[in-house]
């Protein structure tokens, strides 16, 4: 049993990028599906395929280098980080995204800022 499944997902993506894999599988859950959908929508991954027990993520490369250069888990099980709609951080001066769990669902930082909702700051990707 994992204590932090989101951190496990981010670590699997990071390790697969370092090994230059084309695809990575993670155990399926609703929050991980939402995070993967946001990554696809923002252009950080190629495709997402939902299977019965796992999510297959097709990784994206540009000129042989990974599109995702960094992933960081912000809110952890031992220390939750919450932000208001005006305090949502700009990752790498706007070159990256942050993902929040809000009352409106899991949203990218720009969407949450536009809807004026805050929430738990899950991770940052650049």
Automatic annotation (TrEMBL):
Pfam families: Ribosomal_S8 (PF00410). InterPro entries: Ribosomal_uS8, Ribosomal_uS8_CS, Ribosomal_uS8_sf. Keywords: Ribonucleoprotein, Ribosomal protein, RNA-binding, rRNA-binding. The keyword Ribonucleoprotein applies. Gene3D superfamilies: 3.30.1370.30, 3.30.1490.10. The keyword Ribonucleoprotein applies. GO terms for cellular component: ribosome. Belongs to the universal ribosomal protein uS8 family. One of the primary rRNA binding proteins, it binds directly to 16S rRNA central domain where it helps coordinate assembly of the platform of the 30S subunit. Part of the 30S ribosomal subunit. Contacts proteins S5 and S12. This is Small ribosomal subunit protein uS8. The lineage of its organism: Bacteria, Pseudomonadati, Thermodesulfobacteriota, Desulfovibrionia, Desulfovibrionales. The gene is rpsH.
